[in-house]
């Protein structure tokens, strides 16, 4: 995701840089083992176990892995929605029907993303999800999430609030990314829980 959100202050940028550097030191085996553990933890959550529709995303690089989780959800008959980045950094959504339904997309000079290749369902589709998985770099003890800096998921959260939708908001992170304090902006909204390879922490 791009790093150009005007609300993205220097404190957030410094913390993000340090945490992303730590991710980049991880081996492919570390990432794979963590992804399997994250899937097991997330699938054990009551809100995930009872979900009919989950808005997720496909991790890239050393991000905490999500593909094992989305495949397991789909195998359970859960409808999985994946985002597609729009030119204004908002998100459209499409349905995940297996790895063959993903397309590699490069937006300008940014990182390559995996997006749904099929029909677009519109930005409002996320409001029908029972659970929304949010990408992030850190979360603090208040449940405030540090994102990648593009502001796309701030729009998603604002859209959910405007629609009166109350899905469970979960962020998937590595153990060292649950930090003491994330610099906050007035528009920042807390998540309900963080899932790490070693456990789950709830905030509300």
From TrEMBL:
<keyword id="KW-0479">Metal-binding</keyword>
<feature type="binding site">
    <location>
        <begin position="145"/>
        <end position="153"/>
    </location>
    <ligand>
        <name>ATP</name>
    </ligand>
</feature>
<protein>
    <recommendedName>
        <fullName>5-formyltetrahydrofolate cyclo-ligase</fullName>
        <ecNumber>6.3.3.2</ecNumber>
    </recommendedName>
</protein>
<dbReference type="GO" id="GO:0030272">
    <property type="term" value="F:5-formyltetrahydrofolate cyclo-ligase activity"/>
</dbReference>
<keyword id="KW-0547">Nucleotide-binding</keyword>
<keyword id="KW-0460">Magnesium</keyword>
<keyword id="KW-0067">ATP-binding</keyword>
<dbReference type="GO" id="GO:0009396">
    <property type="term" value="P:folic acid-containing compound biosynthetic process"/>
</dbReference>
<dbReference type="GO" id="GO:0046872">
    <property type="term" value="F:metal ion binding"/>
</dbReference>
<comment type="similarity">
    <text>Belongs to the 5-formyltetrahydrofolate cyclo-ligase family.</text>
</comment>
<dbReference type="GO" id="GO:0005524">
    <property type="term" value="F:ATP binding"/>
</dbReference>
<feature type="binding site">
    <location>
        <position position="63"/>
    </location>
    <ligand>
        <name>substrate</name>
    </ligand>
</feature>
<feature type="binding site">
    <location>
        <begin position="12"/>
        <end position="16"/>
    </location>
    <ligand>
        <name>ATP</name>
    </ligand>
</feature>
<dbReference type="GO" id="GO:0035999">
    <property type="term" value="P:tetrahydrofolate interconversion"/>
</dbReference>
<dbReference type="InterPro" id="IPR002698">
    <property type="entry name" value="FTHF_cligase"/>
</dbReference>
<dbReference type="InterPro" id="IPR024185">
    <property type="entry name" value="FTHF_cligase-like_sf"/>
</dbReference>
<dbReference type="InterPro" id="IPR037171">
    <property type="entry name" value="NagB/RpiA_transferase-like"/>
</dbReference>
<feature type="binding site">
    <location>
        <position position="58"/>
    </location>
    <ligand>
        <name>substrate</name>
    </ligand>
</feature>
<keyword id="KW-0436">Ligase</keyword>
<dbReference type="Pfam" id="PF01812">
    <property type="entry name" value="5-FTHF_cyc-lig"/>
</dbReference>
